[in-house]
Amino acid sequence: MNGSNRPVALVTGASSGIGAALAREFARHGHDLVLSARSVAPMETLAAELRELGAEATVIGTDLAEPGSAARLVTALETRGIGIEVLVNNAGLGAMGRFARISAGRNAEMLQVNIVALTELTQALLPAMLARRRGKIMLVASTASFLPVPNMAVYGATKAFVRSFGEALAEELKGSGVTVNVLCPGVTATNFFEAAGGSALSSLQTQRMMSAEAVAKIGREGLTRGERVTVAGLMNRLLAFAAIHTPHFLTLPAAARMMAQD
Ligand SMILES: NC(=O)c1ccc[n+]([C@@H]2O[C@H](COP(=O)([O-])OP(=O)(O)OC[C@H]3O[C@@H](n4cnc5c(N)ncnc54)[C@H](OP(=O)(O)O)[C@@H]3O)[C@@H](O)[C@H]2O)c1
Question: Which of 9, 24, 113, 228 would bridge 170 by S-S if both were Cys, CB 3.0 to 4.6 A apart?
């Protein structure tokens, strides 16, 4: 049980990248943290750093690609007597390349982590937030949620799910004391592209890459303001606007070229 009066934020995918940066942001802004991902060692290092900032930090190793893992994570929280006020569903993975060449196993992993575990965790932790009439949920989607993404087809579709689900849930929860924020980063300098099997990013993508720290700051501020959708950075907001308002027959060939791996 956390001994402080600080609200507790659970961050999934906290072992690297945007999740680790979000954990630091929440610790600096008065939260205790629960960190969850598969890689325990980097989270233990991060937890020690967060304790230096005055936060309590608990590490729970979880593989969210395993069916039933979200329920096991919630049981682990209950066993420790930890109540969650801020749920940050950040864990996610991609796969770059043509759909026909991506393994069924990788696609299943993406669907399980990006969609199923995110939905199950939200469903499991929401009732206590509603009972308290207080809580915040962040769902990390992507600018990829604004248009179909050839050469990253399943990933783009998972992020479209996340944004659709998050915006609908935000509307349902209006007036309940629980708010939902969908954070949409654009290209961000993390392990993501290497893990997604990307061989190369275009120079345009590399040039407009944001840092995980900048994305996390914008995301936490958006969540705090009660924004429903936060697109990180001016260039990404312009791209999202263009993606929404331009016909797909123009945007999809451009997106395919941008994501082409061969
Ligand atoms: N980087 C970008 O350009 C970008 C753009 C838009 C959106 N996003 C989204 O931002 C989120 C964070 O990604 P990132 O860019 O920070 O990439 P990252 O550095 O690769 O971080 C991904 C995180 O997800 C965790 N994760 C992956 N598979 C998992 C599993 N099976 N079970 C539990 N945790 C798992 C990883 O931890 P372990 O490997 O230790 O399990 C890691 O902590 C993702 O949802 C991603 O889709 C990224």
Answer: 228
228 an active-site residue? no
Q: Is 156 in the pocket of ligand 1 (CB under 6 A)?
A: no
Q: How far is the CA of 192 from the centre of ligand 1 (A)?
A: 6
CATH for 8-259 is 3.40.50.720
> Residues for the chain: how many in total?
262
**Nearest C-alpha neighbor of 15 from the set 55, 52, 44, 57:** 44
C-alpha 91 to ligand 1 mean position (Å): 5
Q: Is the pLDDT of residue 244 over 90?
A: yes
What CA–CA distance (Å, rounded) separates 91 from 120? Answer: 13
Q: Quick check: CB of 259 below 6 Å from ligand 1?
A: no
DSSP string, 118-172: HHHHHHHHHHHHHHHT-EEEEEE--GGGGS--TTSHHHHHHHHHHHHHHHHHHHH
Rounded CA-CA distance 105/97 in Å is 15
CA angle 189, 140, 81 (to 5 degrees): 115
At 160-216, the pLDDT tens digits run 999 999 999 999 999 999 999 999 999 999 999 999 987 766 655 676 799 999 999
Say if pTM beats, i.e. exceeds, 0.90.
yes
